[in-house]
Amino acid sequence: MNVALQRPLSAVDLNFNPPTIPLGQLRDCAREFWGLEGELTPLDGERDQNQRLTTADGASYVLKVSAGGENEGAVDFQVAALRHLERYAPDLPVPRIIASTRGNDREWIAAADGKRHMVRVLSWLPGTPLSQSKPLGTNALRNAAAFQAKLARGLRGFFHPHARHFVAWDIQRALLLEPGIQAWVADDAKALCADFNARFQREVLPRLPALRAQVVHSDGHADNLLRAESGSDEIVGVIDFGDMVHAPLVQDLAVILASFARHGEMSLENAVAQVEAWNAVLPLADEELEVLHDLTLLRIATSLCMYDFRIHATEKPPAWLTEERPDIVRSLTKFLALDRAEVHERYRAACGRVSRAPANIEIAALRERRSRALGPSYRLFYDRPVHLVRGEGTWLFDADGRRYLDCYNNVASVGHCHPHVVAALSRQAATLNTHTRYLHDNVVRYAERLTATMPEPLRVCYFVCTGTEAVDLAIRIARVVSKNEGVIVSDDSYHGNSNVVGTASTCMYPKSEQPAWLATVPPPNGYRGEYRYGTPDLGRKYAAHIDPAIAKLQERKQGAAAWVCDIIFDSNGTILSPPGYLEYTAGAIRAAGGLFIADEVQSGFYRTGDEMWAFNYSDVVPDMVCLGKPIGDGHPIGAVITTPAIAAKFAAKYSYFNTFGGNPVSAAVGMAVLDVLEREGIQQNVIAAGKVLEAGLAQLAAKYSLVADVRGKGLFWGLEIVRDHAMRAPAVEEADRIMNLLREDGFLLGRTGAFDNVIKIRPPLVFTPDNARTLLQGLERALSRA
Ligand SMILES: Cc1ncc(COP(=O)(O)O)c(C=O)c1O
Question: Of ligand 1's atoms, which has the minimum distance to the CA of residue 471?
């Protein structure tokens, strides 16, 4: 049942046959009651019989004869509205009521059948209906919308007892939903509207009574709006106040959008232009914008019903009904095919609203520009990429103001936009930024502070700008010092993107293309590798794989220059080096004349809680330590820390310069990060939050069979997602779904591992135990739905 109809429809409601009073009688009437004598020319009318009356002196009027039995209130309503406009919006070009010589705004005449009809005379508005110029340009369409907005503004405050009368076109009536009407509606129209109608009834109609309402013209279409006869785009008048009704204000705009769509003028661009033009005169509220597109669709659908009714339920339907019907079907099809969210966002943007709900349209546009400007190599996370605009601590905010718990970004180590770091950066940036060829206190102090966090003899610091540069430089130094070329990394390793380091990043390209100077070892994966958890001396057993790798490099005449180890094996699915592993591998590479390079880009800066550097869990002091990512809380800093002896050997042949590495601003930022680490109990926080995660993740693994292995420490965890435990079959799709479900739920996580089936938790170090509990709840929700 149509919730908006207070009573069932009757045939009278839909009677559109205007009266046919003979012209002679109308001429007599004009002379007798108005003292007007002249030529009558018929004009269109849906319910009224309309004539243009032109007097001998060239003046024109409109003579309107209402249908017999027409409710007098309906006519009084129109008269009162025009009088209101004359008084309160005198500049608006609308017809004026011409009083009869007796001072009446209407007179009565009797037709031959005895029925009495009301007759009115209105002033004639010069101008040409917009419908006579096709196609209409955007400018004319904008003017039409702005004009109607002015008319709606003029009618504000006006009321009349008849204002809530039944108007078949009234969108609030949702005529198409009326079972009586459905009988006349053709099957194609029903099929077209079926889904939309159901949703409209469920979601839109119930919201209409809460919208701002007033008397609206409700008929702003191309036949009623007049443009200047000069042909300019100026709107010089509007006629036909017969559909006026008390309704949600936004309905008036929906009528305009629907009308012009119906006339084939409308693209989404033109609709947006009309919304913008209306809003400039009469600003729209959010809740009005929310229903605007649906109201427009319903208004087009209502037209279709009315056409079908008139074609099928009236005696002699005019030919134009059947001729115009396909246009309506076309425009309805076109508008139904538009993406509702996109339309809504475009309307909002046209009204100056900052984009809200995942502004699909803006994201799509930005994505498109991005792939054009950055090329196809770049990837985005998530099925629905996140458009971030702000960060604070462990929180990230998107363009719509939605916040996400950052469970992934280790780069913002001490929290996004930490005020102490931001202040240090701004202060130094406002003072001086140069490079290391000039003396500056910052870079020296920073190198001293950074190396002081490491054991002797790691006391020399080379500054670079990224982790890649750090590993690249470390390999270069190792080659110079060892006089060997060969490099050993783990299978599926990642160390960066330069020519050498990209090649040492074996997860990034096919194994068959690895060069002769590269050899790999399997990561010490106790869950799915050669030696499983519980194997005695597991670390040593995995470590022994370095021997054949060294032998291979020596056979190839490359020699062994370096063993580069990401101590937490991030790209292998987060695997902490097992006990004994680093001791053996470091010993083996040194025995072969090479150097041990600890890549602490992921594992450093208290990531694992108990130690600032992950190599500290072993007895090994690396020959070189590579730093990056968390070192600058988002600012691009990298470093290689090594021993004076190694630095001396390198310097004997090569000097070193890096334009940006170690600049005063970066050094100030790096020191500010160290300040925060020292002052703000970061390590204790990592340990505490890590314990919450450890316990909670174990519980989830016990409850959800998808989680086959949980490994990690502190604030670095991997959840291996598998389809079945016996086969250890990676559940890649499920892992992807979990990540996307979490994103929708407001949590940002990542995926890693050779199969991309390991959910990675690696938040900023300021991620608190409470944040951890919140994440566990989110994970539980996602796992239960994956
Ligand atoms: C272990 C490891 N080393 C080095 C790098 C390279 O760092 P960047 O991207 O700053 O060049 C990365 C980056 O992900 C990494 O994970």
Answer: 4
Please give the number of the atom of ligand 1 that sits closest to the Cα of 571: 16
Q: What is the pLDDT of residues 587-631, one digit of tens each?
A: 999 999 999 999 999 999 999 999 999 999 999 999 999 999 999
CA 497–ligand 1 middle distance (angstroms) = 8
Using CB distances shorter than 6 Å, the residues near ligand 1 are 466-468, 471, 494-496, 566, 570, 599, 601-602, 628-629
Residue carrying the six token digits 């310097």: 651
Distance in Å, CA 492 to ligand 1 centroid: 13
Atom 15 of ligand 1, residue of closest alpha carbon:
495
Mutate to test the pocket of ligand 1, among 408, 413, 468, 637 (most ligand atoms within 8 A of CB): 468
Whole-angstrom Cα distance, residue 123 to residue 455? 97
Ligand 1 atom 3: the closest Cα is on which residue? 495
Measure 524 CA to ligand 1 centroid, in angstroms: 20
Nearest alpha carbon, ligand 1 atom 8: 467
Q: How would DSSP label each residue in 323-338?
A: HHHHHHHHHHHHHHHS
Dihedral sign, Cα of residue 143, residue 146, residue 152, residue 154: negative
Q: Whose C-alpha lies nearest to ligand 1, atom 4?
A: 495
Q: Is 423 helix (H, G, I), strand (E, B) or coil?
A: helix
Ligand 1 centroid distance, CA of 601 (Å)? 6
- Which residues does residue 565 pair with via DSSP β-bridges, in sequence order? 598
pTM beyond cutoff 0.70? no
User: Cα of 315 to ligand 1 centre, how many Å?
Assistant: 79
Minimal-distance CA residue to ligand 1 atom 2 = 495
Reduced to 3 states, what is the DSSP secondary structure of residue 625?
A: strand
* Residue 195, both tokens: 């889904």
Our mutation pick for probing the ligand 1 site, out of 629, 640, 762, counting the most ligand atoms within 8 A of Cβ, is: 629
Question: Checking DSSP bridges between strand 49-55 and strand 38-43, what pairing results, if any?
Answer: antiparallel
Identify the segments of the chain with pLDDT beneath 70.
1-16, 175-181, 262-265, 354-360
How much distance in Å is there from the Cα of 495 to the middle of ligand 1?
5
What pLDDT, on the 0 to 100 scale, is given for residue 1? Answer: 30
Q: Would you state the pLDDT for residue 6?
A: 45
User: Which pLDDT score, from 0 to 100, does residue 672 have?
Assistant: 98
> How many A from CA of 416 to the centre of ligand 1?
19
Q: How far is the CA of 385 from the centre of ligand 1 (A)?
A: 22
Q: Is residue 19 a contact partner of residue 67, using CB atoms and an 8 Å limit?
A: yes
Burial of 505 (0-12, 13-18, 19+ CB in 10 A): buried
Question: Residue 404 is inside which H or E element, if any?
Answer: strand 403-406
- pLDDT the model gives residue 355: 56
Site to probe by mutation for ligand 1, drawn from 601, 615, 660, 752 as the one with most ligand atoms within 8 Å of Cβ, is 601
Angstrom distance (rounded) from CA 526 to CA 710 = 11
For residue 289, which of 341, 235, 232, 231 has the smallest C-alpha distance?
341
Cβ-based neighbour number of residue 49 at 10 Å? 20
Token look-up 């996004």 returns 416
DSSP state of 353: P
Spatial contact of 404 and 747, defined as CB atoms under 8 Å apart: yes
pLDDT digits (tens, 9 = 90+) for 553-582: 999 999 999 999 999 999 999 999 999 999
Q: How many CB atoms lie within 10 A of CB 190?
A: 15
At 664-698, the pLDDT tens digits run 999 999 999 999 999 999 999 999 999 999 999 99
- Helix ranges (H only) for 514-612 are 538-543, 546-555, 581-591
Tell me, in angstroms, the distance from the centre of ligand 1 to residue 599's CA.
Answer: 9
Q: How many residues does the chain have?
A: 786
User: Which residues make beta-bridge pairs with 110?
Assistant: 116
Q: How far apart are the first and last CA of the chain?
A: 39
Sheet holding 560-566, edge to edge: 460-464, 638-642, 624-627, 595-599, 560-566, 486-490, 518-521
